[in-house]
Design a protein that fits this description.
Length: 49
């Protein structure tokens, strides 16, 4: 399995999006986004669970 984390400004390429399963992190409260490193940490944590 490969995890590709895109930054908020540029994201990931359309080619990667078309050939991938996109995963989002649901968030409560007023935050609009997470730092890319924080998002990667959450995704990898959930993968190992």
């Amino acid at each position: 399995m490969v995890v590709i984390i895109g930054n908020e400004g540029n994201g990931i390429s359309d080619e990667v999006k078309e050939n991938s399963t996109l995963v989002t992190i649901p968030m409560n409260g007023y935050a609009e986004s997470l730092n890319a490193a924080a998002a990667a940490t959450i995704i990898m944590w959930e993968m190992m669970r």
